[in-house]
Design goal:
Structural class: alpha/beta
Largest sheet: 6 strands, parallel
CATH superfamily of the largest domain: Glycoside hydrolase/deacetylase
Number of domains: 2
């Protein structure tokens, strides 16, 4: 009798947990936006924003093997604006800064799986040592890679109070990229994810169509397209961690962080 009562208790607890999930969590699905920076040849050497080429290849293979639908940031932003209900295995891939290994290491793998991605560029770093050049960027944008702005000099915007500097970083980075690439730059990424309401309004005013942060801000569900939370992918992420980060519910359990 004791074991029967215990089994019934476990069953009731299980039903309650499922009910909570079904009514309060399941409808909070958010398309995960993955955030990368560098892809190294051999290993990450303990650096936070570096994954090895082997890990990156394995992670992209994981997406393909398990049937994830990799969509463009453009598709995601348009869908959010229109209230689209996305497939629960959708995912977006992004890179910050525009390092040269995005072209030499990441791009071949993305092309292998026909995955779209967005690379946010520090416009004044393009063509300098360690960063992609204009010819590489033109090749990538012709192969399903969207290019966005990450300011001119990677300035942490909330610390900058000179309006002319903010204009230069937000507006002129867009103009520079558009002038050199010959295409509209639709999206912006806040350096280190930092922004204020005023900065967000400036990005809107500069005619961007959306902007990405990191884990900053209080909108867990990415309902606003100018403060999109992203999920950092690490070199050491196991299959279980990848499942969690790709679940669409990862943001629910992350701690709140100020946007600046």
């Amino acid at each position: 009798m004791f074991f029967l009562r215990r089994s019934i208790s476990y069953f009731i607890i299980g039903v309650l947990i499922w009910t909570v999930f079904a009514f309060f969590v399941r409808d909070k699905y958010t398309v995960p936006i993955l955030m990368y920076h560098r892809v190294s040849e051999s290993g990450a050497s303990g650096e936070l924003n570096v994954v090895s080429q082997n890990s990156f290849d394995h992670q992209m293979k994981f997406l393909k093997k398990h049937g994830y639908q990799v969509i463009s940031l453009d598709h995601l932003v348009e869908g959010i604006d229109k209230g689209v209900l996305f497939n629960r295995r959708s995912v977006v891939i992004t890179f910050d800064d525009g390092y040269d290994d995005n072209y030499t290491k990441a791009f071949p793998t993305l092309r292998k799986y026909s995955f779209p991605a967005t690379i946010f560029l520090i416009s004044d770093s393009v063509g300098t040592p360690g960063f992609v050049n204009w010819q590489q960027l033109k090749e990538m944008q012709d192969a399903n890679i969207t290019l966005g702005s990450h300011t001119r000099h990677h300035v942490y915007l909330p610390d900058e109070h000179d309006q002319s500097v903010l204009d230069d970083e937000i507006i002129n980075s867009k103009k520079s990229l558009e002038g050199n690439l010959g295409r509209e730059i639709k999206f912006f990424s806040y350096p280190s994810g930092g922004y204020t309401e005023e900065i967000k309004e400036m990005v809107k005013g500069a005619k961007y169509q959306g902007a990405c942060a990191t884990n900053r801000g209080y909108d867990r569900f990415n309902t606003g397209v100018f403060e999109l939370k992203r999920i950092r992918i690490n070199d050491s992420d196991s299959a279980i961690v990848m499942w969690a980060k790709l679940s669409g519910y990862y943001n629910i359990f992350r701690s709140f962080k100020n946007s600046y």
